[in-house]
Amino acid sequence: MEQSEKESIRSATEEVSREFKTLVNSQDLDSLKQLQHLILGRLQDSNAVLSHFNEYSEHCFAEVSSDLSRNTRLLKSMKSDLDYIFQKLRSLKAKILATYPDAFPDVSTIEALDRRPDLEMPQ
């Protein structure tokens, strides 16, 4: 590009920028800037609160996680123990039924034998 073209482009851009400045009100720009600072302050406050909450949550989780894992292991152990007990009960019941077929009454016999009031039903 030639020097004269560069100067004409420069003068045109300066003219456009001057015209653009006349389109925008400086008071509006100042109010926008104040609003942006206000929003920035609020976002920084929110960020600080969230950071504090995250630290607190991490601390609480660290305190509870060992108890949670210990209780989880205990529940799994209890479940396996109960499964073993019920398996043994089923096998004992099957052996008793094989030896003594009339040892466990059927549903109709149980209803005839059980004359206790049903406490769950309102009277």
From TrEMBL:
Instruction: Return any one Pfam family short name.
Output: KxDL
What range(s) does the KxDL domain occupy? Answer: 20-104
Its domain of life? Eukaryota
Question: Could you tell me which PANTHER family the record lists for this protein?
Answer: KXDL MOTIF-CONTAINING PROTEIN 1
InterPro entries on file: KXD1-like, KxDL_dom
The entry sums up its family as follows: Belongs to the KXD1 family.
Q: Would you tell me the protein name for this molecule?
A: KxDL domain-containing protein
